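Minutes, structural biology subgroup

Action item carried over from last meeting: produce the structure token record for Transcription termination/antitermination protein NusA (Prosthecobacter fusiformis). EB confirmed the sequence was re-checked against the source entry. Recorded below for completeness.
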Amino acid sequence: MISELKALFDYYEKEKGIDRAKMVEALSQALLAASKKSIGPARELRIDIDPEKGTIKAWAKLLAVETVTNPWEELPLAKARMIKKEAMLGDEIDLEVTPKNMGRIAAQTAKQTMLQRLRMAEKENLYDEFKDRTGDVVNGTIRRFDKSDVVVDLGKFEGTMPSKERVSTEDYTPGDRMRFYVKAVEREGARGPEIVLSRAHVNFVRRLFEFEVSEIGDRTVEIASIAREAGYRTKVAVHSADEKVDPVGACVGLRGARVKNIVRELNNEKVDIIRWKSDPAEFVREALKPIKVLSIQVAPDHKAARLTVSEEDLSKAIGRRGQNARLTSRLVGMELSIERDEHAAEVFEGQLDTAAHELERALGINLDTARKLANGGLGDLQELRRVDMEDISEVLGGDDQLAQQVYTLIAAYTPKA
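Output recorded by EB:
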């Protein structure tokens, strides 16, 4: 047991960086609990361990008495004087009570308890080493799954990526080597001190840009804001105080090399790089490009904005399941209300109405028929002269008789000089 115990101390001290004094304390407490079963409830029982020699001794502090009534707490005066010559009645005498089977007790009963205590000490070291690394990006290898959490080997320590910090579009397989964002280092986690990792955190993207884009690292270019829906899309707004520096170009890199490296690390998540503007309205326009914003009204407190886009751009501005609108809103820091440009629709309706009335006057048809032709794209007389009767019938809902009448009127129409 002596050589085994010394080897255990040496291993944990050199390989795990755990202080030997902490290990001695942990083993002493474990053996104390285990030894009470063998020794009994001796008064002030304690365990002394020599970490260098690897020896273990049990001691009790008994009272010197004339007549022993409680052997767990008392010692005959005569026996006490054999240990301490000057012993008097009532003196406390240290008596070695190490059982013959202490080696077996230590090996069988206390070892597991000691290892548990040592794991706690190891986690305390983890906290001390990682407490200042919150916000860093670390490399790790996926080791196993603990329910829905992913346990990651960081080399000397292990980190945990909770299910809410995972990216829904990513697959995680033991043995995969990936980069992780250190979201927090918690002293009082569910299993003691623990490193909380993330790949879904918005600052993971920020740190990747800092590593990949030297201009961000030296603050020539700054990230003004980021909005992310992990696994799907990220919008990053950048700017530079140096007018000679193109912040978007710096982030994209030569032939897109820089942003491609970031996208690759994010497993092909779409990344939009946007030029930041100090003017809120201009910033919104930049964030929605290439969609053209027709009009925008920003609230006085800059917390909300109402904007209009064309009918064709409305669905693009909102995005699939509202994603583009949500991300843009987070990026610019305003609640956005995106609407179709009703003015453009009104102008278009007016043009159709004018065309219908012109057809009514020119051909002598009723207004309802003229509206059907105009709405079907046949509101121009010149266009009508070039189409077949079948095309007219289709626009008129398959009414061949009415189509024939219109076709005859068109053929007979003579423009006024």
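Discussion: DSSP finds 16 helices and 15 strands in the chain.
Next step: EB to file the record with the rest of the batch.
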